């Protein structure tokens, strides 16, 4: 009799755990509130994550948990869509981004410049060219370690009903477009843990305090605070400093360049130039960008046409502009994932340099 009662409880418990979405293949339930630890009497108020921890990249996009209905492109409601205020230039591709953060764990925001996401977090970014879906990228946090992340991308089929894991060496001119699907090594050059460095400890480059503090679409910093999803609430108004001209330039350099040119252990080691703005940098003159670029000589880059990283009032002799304006040679910056100059970005940075005394 006793046995039957506890068996019944186990069955009840197990069925309550699979509400939400069934775990896909290759997925294992690692969440701290695993069924075996639950005590029968106290399980009612316990939190359940919609998804467990993926420890390998699934073969198909439909197995990653992004879409509840991939045919109709219905995104699973456990995910948030988000839009960073400043975006990486990817030639003319249109991009959409989503994140799944395990519901039962907060995002560790004790370092407001480098959020640490709970194990099991999944980041997605989808690329379309001329209205056609080309690839959907995925970053998985698989463990507690600084390097416990997996990077993969899914190439869409012609009728956009499914996408399959792309080869780790990438795909040139995917689906007959000019868009190259990056290799896994290239993902790591920007997001982190590449042998030559580049990236940031958080690994997330657009889902951050400064980038989500806006009034636009998608989940925002205010929503995350209101929903109690951050371990530490931000103090004061977090925003890129300055007037509109200054903000546009600082924001552009932050997301397009600061991901490699920063002062973390992952930043590229060749130069001390730091183009990443931290939340406590509340004046333009106090930003790392200003302090390490304006009027500063280049460390390794020499060219007769340039006299400083940023020469106040003179964009044409500033190496930052010089390198942003090149493609397909050694001067190109960023050094990968773009074939066309970002004219709007160049104009934004030029306008700021022209305004500098
Ligand atoms: C040139 C550098 C660069 C390369 C190469 C790159 N990324 Fe990113 N990625 C970024 C930046 C910067 C952002 C944030 C800004 C944005 O989304 O516009 C980002 C955003 C993302 C996001 C959304 C989460 C976030 O960080 O905000 C995902 C997912 C992602 N990238 C996956 C990948 C994968 C997988 C690869 C390789 C197949 C890759 N990326 C290659 C720079 C890069
Ligand atoms: C994927 C990582 C990465 C990104 C993103 C990146 N850089 Fe670089 N950058 C490097 C590396 C590595 C070097 C050193 C080798 C070289 O000069 O090519 C470098 C060097 C430079 C230098 C020379 C600095 C000196 O002291 O001599 C400048 C200027 C520069 N980058 C500007 C930029 C700008 C502007 C952007 C954004 C538009 C950018 N970089 C984005 C990796 C990156």
What does this structure look like?
By secondary structure, the chain is of the alpha+beta class. The chain folds into 2 domains: about 50-210, no CATH class; about 240-355, no CATH class. Helices cover about 20% and strands about 15% of the residues. The protein is built from 8 helices and 10 strands. Strand 7 (about 120-130) and strand 8 form a beta hairpin. Bound molecules: heme C (2 copies). One heme C (HEC) binds near residues 335 and 336.
The chain-level mean pLDDT equals 90
Number of helices: 8
User: What general outline do the C-alpha atoms trace?
Assistant: globular
Unreliable spans are 1-42
Helix content: 10-25%
- H and E string: HEEEEEEEEEEHHHHHHH
Strand composition percent? 5-15%
- Strands of the widest sheet, in order across it, are 5-6-7-8-9-10
What small molecules accompany the polymer chains? heme C
Strand elements, count: 10
Rg from alpha-carbon coordinates: 22 Å
Instruction: Please give the alpha-carbon distance between the first and last residues.
Output: 86 Å
Biggest pleated-sheet summary: 6 strands, antiparallel
- How many domains is the backbone divided into? 2
The secondary structure category is: alpha+beta
């Amino acid at each position: 009799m006793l046995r039957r009662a506890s068996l019944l409880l186990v069955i009840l418990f197990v069925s309550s755990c699979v509400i939400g979405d069934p775990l896909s293949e290759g997925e294992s339930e690692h969440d701290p509130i695993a069924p075996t630890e639950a005590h029968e009497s106290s399980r009612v108020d316990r939190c359940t994550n919609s998804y467990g921890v993926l420890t390998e990249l699934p073969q198909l996009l439909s197995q990653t948990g992004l879409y509840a209905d991939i045919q109709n492109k219905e995104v699973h409601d456990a995910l948030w869509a988000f839009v960073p205020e400043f975006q990486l230039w990817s030639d003319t591709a249109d991009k959409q981004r989503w994140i799944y953060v395990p519901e039962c764990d907060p995002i560790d925001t004790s370092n407001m410049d480098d959020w640490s996401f709970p194990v099991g977090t999944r980041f997605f970014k989808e690329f379309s060219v001329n209205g056609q879906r080309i690839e959907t990228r995925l970053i998985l946090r698989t463990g507690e370690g600084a390097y416990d992340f997996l990077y993969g991308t899914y190439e869409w089929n012609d009728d956009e009903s499914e996408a399959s894991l792309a080869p780790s060496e990438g795909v040139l001119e995917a689906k007959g477009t000019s868009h190259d699907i990056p290799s896994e090594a290239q993902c790591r050059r920007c997001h982190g843990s590449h042998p030559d460095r580049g990236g940031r400890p958080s690994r997330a480059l657009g889902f951050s305090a400064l980038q989500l503090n806006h009034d636009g679409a998608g989940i925002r910093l205010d929503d995350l605070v209101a929903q109690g999803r951050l371990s530490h609430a931000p103090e004061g108004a977090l925003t890129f400093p300055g007037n509109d001209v200054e903000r546009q330039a600082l924001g552009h350099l932050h997301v397009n360049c600061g991901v490699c040119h920063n002062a973390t252990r992952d930043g590229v080691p060749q130069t001390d130039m730091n183009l990443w703005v931290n939340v406590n940098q509340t004046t333009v003159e106090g930003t790392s960008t200003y302090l390490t670029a304006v009027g500063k000589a280049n460390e390794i880059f020499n060219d007769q046409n340039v006299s400083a990283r940023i020469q106040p009032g003179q964009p044409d002799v500033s190496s930052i502009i010089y390198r942003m304006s090149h493609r397909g040679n050694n001067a190109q910056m960023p050094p990968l994932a773009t074939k066309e100059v970002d004219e709007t970005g160049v104009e934004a940075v030029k306008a700021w340099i022209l305004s500098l005394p």
